[in-house]
Amino acid sequence: MKRIILFGIVGVFSLGLSAQSDFSDVFAAGVEDAERFSNDYFGPMSEAAIYSMANGWYNSADSKPLGGFEISLVGNITGFKNKGDKKAFLFDEADYTNLQLVGGNDTRTDTQLVSSVLGDIEGVRVFVEAEIAPGVTETSEFTLPSGLASEGLNFVPSAFLQASVGLVKGLEVKARFLPNINFDDDVEFGLFGAGLQYDFTKILPGDKILPVALSAVIGYTNLNASYDFTDQGLLAGENQRIETTFNTWTFAAVASTKLPIINFYGGLGYITGNSETDVLGTYQAGFGPFQETVTDPFSLRREVSGVTANVGTKLKLGFFRLNVDYNIAEFNTLTAGINFGLR
After folding, report:
1. Which residues face 48 on adjacent strands?
2. Which comes out higher in pLDDT, residue 110 or 222?
3. Alpha carbons within 13 A on the beta-carbon side of 223
4. What is the per-residue pLDDT across 313-343, written as a single tens digit (0 to 9) for each?
5. Residue 93 burial (CB count, 10 A)
6. Which of 138, 142, 259, 319 has CB 3.0 to 4.6 Å from 25, enough for a Cys bridge?
7. d(Cα 168, Cα 26) in Å, to the nearest integer?
8. 125-141 burial, b if ≥16 CB within 10 A, otherwise e?
9. Residue pair 236/283 in contact by the 8 Å Cβ criterion
10. Is the Cβ–Cβ distance between 228 and 186 less than 8 Å?
11. Of 312, 26, 298, nearest to 145 (Cα)?
12. What average pLDDT score do residues 90-106 get?
């Protein structure tokens, strides 16, 4: 269970660290090469996580009246099964100082598609070579890590509690929350967010008899996570940890029906967000006689933005409600909610 949460929350850096091929081998190439590879390898996961967390802000365009409320448990599953361009990237030796590809069939190559953390390409061999004395070289050869798809996983999950309360005519405020959760004293994460929804049809004279509602929604989500892997013995060094922050903004125009039991809703929106992952602590970089100890070696940053569209349905049975929708974007997301509310 902890590993599944790490997949969606901590950006799967831990998977890379404990993959079949030890990620510590990449540090043999030095900090600059390790940072370059890590940025390409882990970046698509950060993008998928941003799209996942940005969803679930609404299940109707019909805003609640003064005092009306709804409390929801929202879950998102963001898939990447068919995202071939995000599951692999082109490894080009020209971009690296020390890392080189091992050619197959006694041939050399300087470019090759390799797996990102979402992918399933296995068995790509690389090497680092250094001259330890005049005319004498030492070589370290290892296999690059594969990704989630190689373990049969093709999605990124996210989940949180969310509450909505109606205020003045047409205005609804929202908040989402996931309290700080700690697993085995090495993984900790928490989430919060706030949003507004304004129902324009509430200002029209015939609001009570209109069969549809039209709203604008804006929402902000922040997630902070940390993973302390010092005791895992994955990499030589001390006080080793990863600290990750995600920020997302969602802007949407929403339409829905206004029926007593079953309703349908859809939206057209725009998502923007960023993530920053700091690799902290001390590490042994390089290999052989050229090893050095580095502190807080690098940070990884990713920014994404894009248009989204979704369609969904909501079932309301008195105090209890269920909703599900599908969002089409750079990474498609299936959202489901269990809701309890008044009006």
Report:
1. none
2. 222
3. 30
4. 999 998 999 999 999 999 999 999 999 998 7
5. 16
6. 142
7. 57
8. ebebebeeeeeeeeebe
9. yes
10. yes
11. 26
12. 85
> Using the 8-state DSSP alphabet, how is residue 93 labeled?
G
250: its two tokens: 């969602």
pLDDT in tens, 236-281: 778 888 889 999 999 999 999 999 999 999 999 999 999 999 989 9
Those residues with Cβ within 8 angstroms of residue 233's Cβ, 6 or more apart along the chain or in another chain: none
Residues 6 or more apart from 287 whose CB is under 8 A from it? 28, 128, 130, 138, 140
Distance, in Å, from the CA atom of 63 to the CA atom of 167, rounded to the nearest integer, reads: 9
Q: What is the DSSP letter of 51?
A: H
Contacts of 110 (CB under 8 A, 6+ apart): 92, 93, 94, 100, 101
Q: What is the longest distance spanned by two Cα atoms in the chain?
A: 88
**pLDDT exceeds 70 at position 107:** no
Could you tell me the end-to-end alpha-carbon distance of the chain, in angstroms, rounded to an integer?
Answer: 36
Higher pLDDT, 43 or 182: 43
Q: Which residues 6+ apart lie within 8 Å of 260 measured at CB?
A: 316
pLDDT at 256: 97
What's 171-236 look like in SS3?
A: EEEEEEEEEEEEECCCEEEEEEEEEEEEEHHHHCCCCCCCCEEEEEEEEEEEEEEEEECHHHCCCC
**Looking at per-residue confidence, does 227 or 212 come out higher?**
212
DSSP letters, 229-259, are -GGGTSSSSSS-EEEEEEEEEEEEEEEEE--
Give CA–CA dist 341/343, Å, rounded: 6
272 phi, psi to nearest 5 deg:
-140, 145
CA dist., res. 53 & res. 286, Å (int) = 37
**DSSP letter at 110?**
S
Residues 6+ apart with CB under 8 A from 244: 10, 11, 13, 223, 224, 225, 226, 275, 276, 277, 278
